[in-house]
Design a protein that fits this description.
Layout (H helix, E strand, L loop, with lengths): L1 H49 L4 E3 L4 E9 L2 E8 L5 E8 L6 E6 L14 E7 L3 H4 L2 E8 L4 E3 L1 H31 L4 H13 L10 H22 L6 H21 L1
Parallel strand pairs: 1-7
Antiparallel strand pairs: 2-3, 3-6, 4-5, 4-7, 7-8
């Protein structure tokens, strides 16, 4: 009986040893696989890091400071080292019909009217594959003193757009002044009549460039936007509406002088 017990004990040790070896082997495979996954993930991450967004610049002192990817956006930090304020710039991603264009115009902004000298501006655009393959090009800038720098054809397009916008804003300003004089005591009718008249503005001139016509459209849209903000405000008093229209008159005069 004693001998039998020893034999069984030996078998127990033997089976335990086999089990331990198998567990060690399996654990080794798991660790190896885990390390392999980590390595593959690291390689993929390194490849992403190796990819760089290409930036090309045709403006000498509008300098790239930094590029950051934030979710599905790219934040491009640009520093104005031109010595004078910038109130418009133009950038393209890719080229031809498949490319995207960004005509950044500060004159209509209620928050920021220009990029001052030595100021860093964050230009935010959607992250897309073309930024890696074809890049973004800073094509041109227009300064607050109406001088300019950059690609000639792009500058001409920017100026044509501005001219179309200016045409509409001047017409809108003239209408506003006329209506303020005629309907001073009936502000709700004044806003309504202005909206009807501005909605009838033409946005196509066959004798002018497509950029000019684009400006006609955006100029008209801006006027309607300004009026809608006044019309949709909860304060419907005649005094409020009249004050807001006077502010709009001042705003239009300021924008027109800078275009």
């Amino acid at each position: 009986m004693k001998m039998k017990f020893i034999q069984n004990k030996s078998k127990t040790y033997f089976y335990s040893l086999i089990t331990l070896i198998l567990l060690t082997f399996v654990a080794s495979l798991v660790v190896s696989q885990s390390n392999s996954n980590i390595s593959l993930a690291q390689i993929k991450q390194d490849k992403i890091k190796e990819r760089e967004i290409k930036i090309f610049n045709k403006v000498s002192n509008f300098r790239l400071v930094k590029i950051k990817t934030v979710g599905k956006e790219v934040h491009i930090l640009l520093k104005n080292e031109c010595g004078k304020s910038i109130n418009s710039f133009y950038a393209t991603v890719g080229s031809g019909e498949d490319g995207n264009t960004y005509n950044v115009e500060f004159l209509y902004s209620g928050i920021k009217n220009e990029i001052s000298p030595n100021e860093v501006f964050t230009f935010k655009i959607s992250l897309e594959e073309k930024l890696y393959t074809e890049g973004l090009t800073l094509q041109a800038v227009i300064f607050a003193d109406k001088t300019e720098e950059g690609e000639y054809s792009i500058l001409q397009e920017m100026k044509d757009i501005r001219l179309g916008e200016k045409t509409q804003l001047i017409k809108g300003l003239d209408l506003l002044k006329t209506h303020l004089a005629l309907l001073k005591n009936n502000s709700s009718l004044l806003v309504e009549n202005l909206g009807v008249n501005i909605s009838s503005f033409e946005t196509k001139d066959d004798t002018r460039s497509s950029a000019y016509n684009s400006g006609l459209s955006s100029g008209k849209a801006n006027l309607i936007y300004y009026l809608d903000n006044i019309k949709n405000n909860e304060n419907k008093s005649s005094l409020y509406v009249e004050q807001e229209l006077m502010k709009l008159q001042s705003k239009l005069e300021g924008v027109i002088s800078k275009l």
